[in-house]
Amino acid sequence: MFLSVFDMFKVGIGPSSSHTMGPMVAAARFLDKIRAAPFTCHALGGSLHGSLAFTGVGHATDRATILGLAGFRPDDYDADAADAALALIRDTQTITPPGLPAMRFNPKDDLVFDFGPTLPGHANGMILRAMDAQGDVILQETYYSIGGGFVLTADELAAGQDKDEGDPVPYPFKSAAEMLQMAETSGKTIAEMKKANEISRGGAENLRSGVARLWQVMNGCIERGLAEDGILPGGLSVRRRSRAIHQALLEERGTNLHAPHKINDWIGVYAMAVNEENAAGGQVVTAPTNGAAGVVPAVIKYWQDHVPGAREAEIETFLLTAAAIGGLVKFNASISGAEAGCQAEVGSAAAMGAAGLAAVLGGTPAQIENAAEIALEHHLGMTCDPVKGLVQVPCIERNGLGAIKAVSAASLALRGDGNHLVPLDACIETMRQTGADMSEKYKETSLGGLAVNIPNC
């Protein structure tokens, strides 16, 4: 099994990898089908289903889908150009994607939020259609946004194409047990095995430059979040807090107000800065999702800025190790809140962050696996119940606490020798079972939990 570090960590836009990035990617794929069709399409339409319908407005799913149909993609998204394109589409009720003629599209009528039964393949389903001059459907495709920005058609999902089918890699582990056995047999670290796999598929230079860009975007997101004030969009009137907290922490340095426990505030504020940027629709890196995008960057930032001896050159080791753990979770369970609740998002991110930190602090493969297990175990059962469908409450603070748990899990694991009672594989399987048993109203639908118990929301 192989999932690239660039599958687990993707540059994109907020507020949601599955509800914003995924639909934009799906729309771009649909444009490719139109371009390849032997006939001319005159109009476009679509429908959003399941979680994409219930929380789609709060996650800007409609906006992302429309922009995707206009030719925008998450990895090179231009906010100013997107605003101009949306205004033009609303005014003209047409979309003109690159390489295609103008097609009729009325944003108010031609993209429908369907609150009926969820489509059979996944909770995040959408159907896109192209029509002829008479309005008859001549091309249609069903897409599923399966978490972390991954998108499959209905046929691809049914055929199991969410599994890797590429050329063999040197270390094809499908479980943590296999990963640990391969590490022992080869004498390599988890990061070294993952690096060999990456180079066998994409080459050394692609890995080096790609990882450098990931950290550049992650760190840039933290810095922007720490510098911005104001109210987040969406109607909850949630105020950005990261800048004020960060300024207070800077002022308290070197004083008797700077108690040792305040390191948790530093870790938390880095994560909150990312998720405030995500909530505002800014550029983020899925880690492994947008809703959990703050955990891994916060742990890296903490390690780089607060741990003596940290070197930027080792960020590759951190991200490769984290991606290996994230790949195991995705392959054997889920990283989608719509499938398994927030345990699959922030829980997975905490496991990835804990593993990465344990690796760069010199942990053995067994200690790294233990760190990931501790972090994931203590997120089991966590629901996804965003208030008003926005990736703000409880999501922003939850990333902060997830990052703190990741650091604590790594520290606890490094105090031991790697031997522990609950294997990571058992914890991942428990998370999968818990997600399957969890009520649908706690899976990113805003139909339960905090979403229905906050007054005036």
Write the layout of secondary structure elements.
Layout: H1 5-8, E1 11-13, H2 17-36, E2 43-50, H3 51-54, H4 61-69, H5 79-92, E3 94-95, E4 103-104, E5 111-113, E6 124-131, E7 137-147, E8 150-153, H6 154-158, H7 176-186, H8 190-202, H9 204-227, H10 242-252, H11 263-279, E9 283-285, H12 295-306, H13 315-332, H14 337-340, H15 346-360, H16 365-377, H17 395-414, H18 424-437, H19 450-453
Parallel strand pairs: 2-5
Antiparallel strand pairs: 1-9, 2-6, 3-4, 6-7, 7-8
Helix pairs in contact: 2-4, 8-9, 8-13, 9-11, 10-11, 11-12, 11-17, 12-15, 12-17, 13-15, 15-16, 15-17, 16-17, 16-18
Describe the protein.
By secondary structure, the protein is α+β, with helices and mostly antiparallel strands. It has two domains: 17-158, D-3-phosphoglycerate dehydrogenase, domain 3 (60s Ribosomal Protein L30, Chain: A, 2-Layer Sandwich); 176-453, no CATH class. It has helices at residues 5-8, 17-36, 51-54, 61-69, 79-92, 154-158, 176-186, 190-202, 204-227, 242-252, 263-279, 295-306, 315-332, 337-340, 346-360, 365-377, 395-414, 424-437, 450-453; strands at 11-13, 43-50, 94-95, 103-104, 111-113, 124-131, 137-147, 150-153, 283-285. The strands form three sheets. The protein has a five-stranded mixed beta sheet with strand order 5-2-6-7-8. It has a two-stranded antiparallel sheet with strand order 1-9. A hairpin with a 2-residue loop joins strand 7 and strand 8. Helix 15 runs antiparallel to helix 16 and helix 16 packs parallel to helix 18. The radius of gyration is 22 Å and the shape is globular. The mean pLDDT is 96.
